[in-house]
Amino acid sequence: MMSTQRILVSLIFLALGTCATAQRVWKPQIEYSGTTFFDGWSFFTDPDPSNGLVRYRDGDTAFAKGLAFWTQDGTPGIQADGWTTLNPGELRDSIRLHSKALFNGGLFIADFALMPWGCGIWPSFWTLGYGAVWPTLGEIDIVEGVQDRTNNECCSHSTPGCFTNTAPGMYSGITGNVDCDSTNGKTGCGILSTSNVTYGEPFNLNGGGVFAMIWDERGIRMWEFDRRNIPADISNNAPTPGSWGMPMAAYDVSTCDINKYFKDNQLVLTVNLCGDWAGGTYSQTAHCPGTCAEQVANPANLKNTIFLINSIKVYQLAGPDEIPPPVANIRDASKNAQGMGGGRVSSNETSVGQASAVDKGRGGGRGGAGGGGGGSNNAMAVNTPCNGLLLAGVVCLVTVFCT
């Protein structure tokens, strides 16, 4: 008779073998691209919540002025006005887009051909809770930076109680603060990429790239790929995150109840100028001349304010793990003015030293808390139904190792 130990070992290997073919299946939900790109977005027109020197324009004005456009090959783009001379402190026309759909999870893959960068410039792609005082429903910054940094920074913002899990192997980025609380002037939890081709000029010179985020019951995990290293499964519209390796950033359910702190989020894409982060850290960037207001008043300094978007695709889990579909066509998605447009600058930036080492002196890092969380190859035994029984143990192994 086979011993209990041998049965356990056999079942463990069966479970692990099953994982090789039991990848979670992500099915296409929404795609924003090409000539229909702008159909899925509203143009935000309220004053900038993060005090930027921008005037966000409505759709008709944006297209009339060339702030929203398509290239000759049909690639959609947005930009800040880079041709009008202003007095320092005057507001410059720009664009902030809010998706008409709300999301409570999914796989989000953004392919950018070009992104803004430069002294005083603050582009970002992020998610923002809709219909509540910020940050009650959370904010997730997927792509963000200021000045001419070269390393992307991810960040999450929540009400009190969401923290990072900094266990080794959770993610590859540089951790800032460990508290995602963004109330009362706190800055949220940022994780800085160790790759210096994930933001700004180097990103553009490499032909752009892809940023991916999973938001599910296990937490939030983010990856980034330059143009030459985009996985074939992404290019083939059949993403398998389990093959992507360790995420750059992660916020794990073991230390942050994702379903509690992040709900009903819109996608947001914006080109901001100065404001709380780019303006607040401007003087710390030695090679940026004068003041931020002076810099962005001169159009000669704004030759790189363009976002070119190949596509933004949203996938949802198929089968029993399926995430509820997004709520589409918000009556007026453009009126969600709660978000701070990415993080706010902290007066005690704990990650400045680390950031400057990565950025080779190109601007200080924002104090943020890096959240830990298992990527597909690092899924820890978090909140799994393991109870010591043989069969339950196998179920637990499948839960832990399959993605």
Features:
403 residues, alpha+beta, Jelly Rolls, disordered N terminus
Description:
- This protein has one domain (22-401): Sandwich (Jelly Rolls).
- Helix content is 17%, strand content 26%.
- The chain has helices spanning 4-21, 59-65, 200-205, 232-235, 258-261, 275-279, 292-297, 352-358, 390-401; strands at 26-32, 41-43, 54-56, 68-70, 76-79, 92-94, 96-99, 106-114, 121-129, 139-144, 153-157, 174-175, 189-192, 209-216, 219-226, 249-252, 265-273, 306-317.
- Strands 1, 4, 5, 8, 14, 15, 16 and 18 form an eight-stranded antiparallel sheet that branches.
- A hairpin with an 8-residue loop joins strand 10 and strand 11 (153-157).
- Helix 1 packs parallel to helix 9.
- Residues 1-21 and 341-403 have low confidence and may be disordered.
- Residues 364-373 have a biased composition (Gly residues).
- This is GH16 domain-containing protein.
Describe how the helices and strands are arranged:
Elements: H1 4-21, E1 26-32, E2 41-43, E3 54-56, H2 59-65, E4 68-70, E5 76-79, E6 92-94, E7 96-99, E8 106-114, E9 121-129, E10 139-144, E11 153-157, E12 174-175, E13 189-192, H3 200-205, E14 209-216, E15 219-226, H4 232-235, E16 249-252, H5 258-261, E17 265-273, H6 275-279, H7 292-297, E18 306-317, H8 352-358, H9 390-401
Parallel strand pairs: 3-6
Antiparallel strand pairs: 1-18, 2-7, 4-5, 5-18, 7-17, 8-14, 8-18, 9-10, 9-17, 10-11, 11-13, 12-13, 14-15, 15-16
Helix pairs in contact: 1-9
Order of helices and strands: HEEEHEEEEEEEEEEHEEHEHEHHEHH
Using the alpha-carbon principal axes, give the shape.
globular
Percent range of helical residues: 10-25%
Let me know the average pLDDT.
81
CATH architecture: Sandwich
Radius of gyration: 21 Å
Terminal CA distance: 35 Å
Largest sheet: 8 strands, antiparallel
| Number of E strands | 18
Text of the CATH class:
Mainly Beta
Q: Estimate what percentage of residues fall within beta strands.
A: 25-35%
CATH fold group:
Jelly Rolls
Poorly predicted residue ranges? 1-21, 341-403
Structural class: alpha+beta
| Count of individual domains | 1
Count of individual helical segments:
9
